[in-house]
Write a structure and sequence with these properties.
This protein has 12 helices and 6 strands. The chain has 290 residues and is an alpha+beta fold. A 6-stranded mixed beta sheet has the order 2-1-6-5-4-3. A hairpin with a 2-residue loop joins strand 4 and strand 5. The longest helix has 25 residues.
């Protein structure tokens, strides 16, 4: 029983994380999954992977409905908890896209059951019958939900999939502009309709609404640094399967900046400052200043 859980642990964590957008909650779901799995009679289990996925999905759905109430009372924009991933994950374009900050935000617009069906079917290619058991629906209903969810996501997901190399190159230019508080340099890098979302969770200062447009976003960034009169530095990390930046203020870790690149420019900026969402990033990697 222990071996089966260990073998499938990474899969179960990813299922829970993509459903919840929170690594901390995904870990809690995994602990609950293990407790339930430990009580199962192995002779009654035909497919260990399917059984474990079913437990994880049901627990995630229950937690997702609870989290919805928490998010409704959240201060400012809510962003997924950044998930550190190995650099080579960024080379797997499909996997990187499935956990990207941009797609995770699209998944937030789905109803809980739609999200579960989409994640299981589109990301992990789980069969309709298996999904039906996990979400408590008929296979026919699951097919309809999958079609509806796919259409919803396709209409809102990023228009192009960008390679890790291109994202990295854009980020390096962004780092230089940031370090020099170069307003024109930022303007040149940002798409005209760029959107900046910053998540402070009511604990750290952040914009309470999305900042839209290259001029507004550039002024917001440069003006914010100047007003705070701080030394800002950054280090490259790989977050949610994509190159990103860990930002430091006066030498102390402050947050994670993820980006969405389209047409060689930054179309989306996602800055997570909420300390509750940064404990894993801060503890799991040496954030070398550059």
């Amino acid at each position: 029983m222990i071996e089966a859980f260990v073998v499938h642990r990474n899969l179960l964590f990813t299922v829970a994380y993509e459903m919840l957008g929170s690594a901390a909650d995904a870990e809690d779901v995994l602990q609950e999954t293990w407790l339930r799995w430990a009580e199962v009679d192995p002779d009654q289990v035909r497919d260990e992977r399917a059984y474990l996925v079913r437990i994880t999905t049901r627990l995630s759905l229950n937690r997702l409905r609870t989290m919805k109430r928490r998010k409704e009372a959240y201060v400012g924009p809510w962003l997924p908890e950044p998930l550190l991933t190995a650099p080579d994950v960024a080379e797997d374009v499909e996997l990187a896209e499935s956990v990207s900050m941009a797609l995770m935000l699209v998944l937030e617009t789905l109803a809980p059951t739609e999200r579960a069906v989409f994640v299981l079917r589109e990301v992990f290619e789980v069969g309709y019958d298996e999904i039906a058991e996990a979400v408590g629906k008929s296979p026919a209903a699951v097919r309809q939900i999958a079609h509806r969810a796919r259409r919803h996501v396709d209409a809102r997901r990023p228009r192009e999939v960008v390679s890790a190399r291109e994202t990295r190159a854009v980020l390096e230019s962004f780092q230089r502009a940031l370090a020099g508080q170069d307003l024109q340099g930022l303007l040149d890098l940002l798409a005209p309709d760029v959107v900046l979302l910053s998540d402070g969770g009511g604990v750290k200062q952040a914009a309470l609404r999305p900042v839209t447009g290259a001029a507004k976003v550039s002024r917001f960034i440069v003006g914010g640094i100047a007003k705070a009169a701080v030394a800002l530095s950054s280090a490259p990390v790989t977050v949610n399967g994509n190159p990103a930046l860990a930002l430091h203020v006066d030498g102390l870790f402050d947050g994670v900046m993820a980006v969405r690149v389209e047409g060689g420019r930054i179309a989306g900026l996602y800055y997570v400052r909420n300390p509750e969402k940064l404990t894993r990033v801060e503890s799991e990697t040496p954030l070398t200043l550059r």
